[in-house]
Amino acid sequence: MSDERTVLLFSYGTLQQDEVQLSSFGRLLDGQEDAMVGYRQSLVEITEPEVIRTSGKRFHPIVEASDNPGDEVKGKVFRITDTELKAADDYEVADYKRIQVLLRSGNSAWVYVRA
User: Fold this and answer.
1) Residues contacting 9, CB < 8 A, separation 6+
2) How confident is the model at residue 2 (pLDDT cuts 50, 70, 90)?
3) Tell me: the pLDDT tens digits for 19-78?
4) Domains of the chain, start order
5) Are 63 and 39 in contact (CB under 8 A)?
6) How many CB atoms are closer than 10 A to CB 100?
7) Contact 74, 105 (CB under 8 A)
8) Structure pTM?
9) Element containing residue 91 per DSSP (H, E)
């Protein structure tokens, strides 16, 4: 690996699946349990055939900020490269946008939320 910068990516959905990681990054990621505090999760219907084929799912989880500070969305945080972050951007459909959030652990990570 080059001296490429690494960043944290939080996933609460399909980016945790082996087949999605292999397809998007060419490797399996090693993740740590964490959570987004003050967010709630629902589902969005995916219409992009390639994404459905890769994930095996037509409905993917999606999160948005909640008015309830007690709400949280559990998932995993992964250490990836800038290049892999761009690959994750390519995988996600237009329903999502990437933002930085402060996780329960105190780490700041990129995450895809409702656009």
Assistant:
1) 15, 77, 78, 80, 84, 85, 88, 109, 110, 111
2) low
3) 999 999 999 999 999 999 999 999 999 999 999 999 999 999 999 999 998 999 999 999
4) 6-114 (3.10.490.10)
5) yes
6) 11
7) no
8) 0.94
9) helix 82-91
* CA–CA distance, 26 with 41 (Å, rounded to integer): 28
CA–CA distance, 68 with 49 (Å, rounded to integer): 35
Token pair of 49 as six digits: 């055939």
Q: Is the Cα torsion angle 31, 95, 100, 69 positive or negative in sign?
A: negative
Tokens at residue 16, please?
A: 């945790």
Tokens of 27: 């490797």
Pair of tokens at residue 12: 């609460």
Cα–Cα distances (Å) from 81 to 65, 109, 114, in that order, read 26, 13, 23
The CA angle 7-106-75, to the nearest 5 degrees, is 70
- Whether the CB-CB separation of 109 and 101 falls below 8 Å is answered with yes
Gap between the Cα atoms of 63 and 44, Å rounded:
10
